[in-house]
Amino acid sequence: MALPTLKPVSRKYAWAHMLDVSNPSSAFTVAPCKGQIMKAFSVISVALTGTNSNFTMKINGTLIPGMAWVVTQAGSAAGDVDSATPTARATSRVNEGDTIEFITDGASSTTSPTTCCVEIEMD
Q: What domains are defined for the chain?
C-alpha cells in the first residue's frame, strides 16, 4: 500500500452543508484563519440525474476566479468528490472571519445533499 501524501500542518479546513445540489442555492462557511485558498471540494450524497450541476465560489460576495467545477451527472454515485483550484492567488485570499460561499446552479434533477470543503494555507 502506498503511503499517503502528508499535508502541511499549516493547512486549515472549513466545511459547509448544502441541502440540495439540484436546487439553485448557496452554502456558507467562515474562514477559520487568514491565508490562501488552495483548493475546494464537494461530495454528493445521492447520484445525480438529468444534467450536471455547476459550482462557483465567493469570498465576502466576490467571485473567486478559477473556483468553478462540475459535478457530473453521467455515472455519478453517492460519495463522488469533485474539486477546483483557484487560478488567481491574489483574489483567493481570506482573512479570519471572512464569509466563504459555495454556489450551485441547481441544474441537475435529483435531490442530493452535498458537503463542501475549502482548504486554506495559513499565513
A: 19-122 (2.60.120.260)
